[in-house]
Amino acid sequence: MRGRFITFEGIDGAGKSTHIEWVAARLRERATVVTTREPGGTPLGEDLRGLLLHRKMGLETEALLMFAARREHIAEVIEPALARGDWVISDRFTDATFAYQGGGRGLPRERLEVLEQWVQGDLQPDLTLLFDVPLETAAQRLANAREPDKFEAESRAFFERTRAEYLRRAAEAPGRFRVIDATRSIEDIRVTLEEILSSF
After folding, report:
1. Which UniProt keywords apply (predicted)?
2. Which of 58, 61, 67, 121 shows its CA 20 to 30 Å from the CA of 52?
3. Cα angle 161, 166, 171; round to 5
4. 58 is in an annotated binding site
5. Rounded to whole angstroms, how far apart are CA atoms 7 and 130?
6. What does the DSSP 8-state code read for residue 90?
C-alpha cells in the first residue's frame, strides 16, 4: 500500500518547523515516517541548498536549481519511501517555489507549471499544512533568530507577495491544504494539528 505525503509550508518566521517533529512522532504511532526538507533532502540537494540560500544568482537559475534539487529528492527519497508504504513529511515542496520564486520574485507561473510537470509528473502532496501569520509576526520571530539567509533578509513587499501566493494556492486546492493560524500558542496549534491528523 502506497504511503502518504505531507508537506509543511509558510513564509519564513511562520513557525512551521517547530511542529514537524511533533507531527512525525504522532504519525509514527501508525506508520514508518521519513522526515526531509527542501531544498535539500539528499547529499546533492544539501549542496544545492547552500548555494540557493546564500549565493546571488539569476531568477531563472534559482528556479531551475530548486527543481533540480527537487528531482533528485523525489527520485532518491520521496518516491522510494512512498513505494515502501512509508509516510513522508517534507519541510517545503513545490508550493514554496510558486510562493517564493513565483509570488515573491515574480517568475511567471506558467514557467513554473512547466517545470513542475516535467520534474514531478502527477506527484502532489496528500496534505499540505500552511502555517500562516501576519508579516509583522514573522518579522518579530526572525529578528530573534540566527543570521538570516538571502530569503529571510528579503523586503516586506517580497513577503507580502509570497504570502499572497501561498494563500492563492490554498484557495485553489482546498482539498489538499489546511491553513493554520500560526499566531496562536504552540499548544493551541497542536490541538488543531491533532484534529487534522485524526481525520487524515
Report:
1. ATP-binding, Kinase, Nucleotide biosynthesis, Nucleotide-binding, Transferase
2. 121
3. 120
4. no
5. 8
6. E
Does residue 147 sit in helix, strand or coil?
A: coil
Instruction: Tell me whether residue 15 is annotated as binding.
Output: yes
Q: Is 89 annotated for ligand binding?
A: no
Model pLDDT, residue 144? 66
Residue 95 known to bind ligand: no
* In the chain, where the domains are located: 5-199
- The mean pLDDT of 61-90, rounded to a whole number, is 98
**Which residues does 40 contact at the CB level (< 8 Å), separation at least 6?**
46, 48, 49, 69, 73
Q: Which fold has domain 5-199?
A: Rossmann fold (3.40.50)
Q: Which of 87, 56, 85, 77 is nearest to 149 (CA)?
A: 56
Q: Is the pLDDT of residue 98 over 80?
A: yes
**In 3-state terms, the chain is what percent helix, strand and coil (to 5)?**
55, 15, 30
Tell me the three state secondary structure of residue 5: strand
**What is the C-alpha separation between 127 and 89, in angstroms, rounded?**
10
Does the pTM surpass 0.85? The reply is yes
User: Does 104 show up as a binding residue in the annotation?
Assistant: no
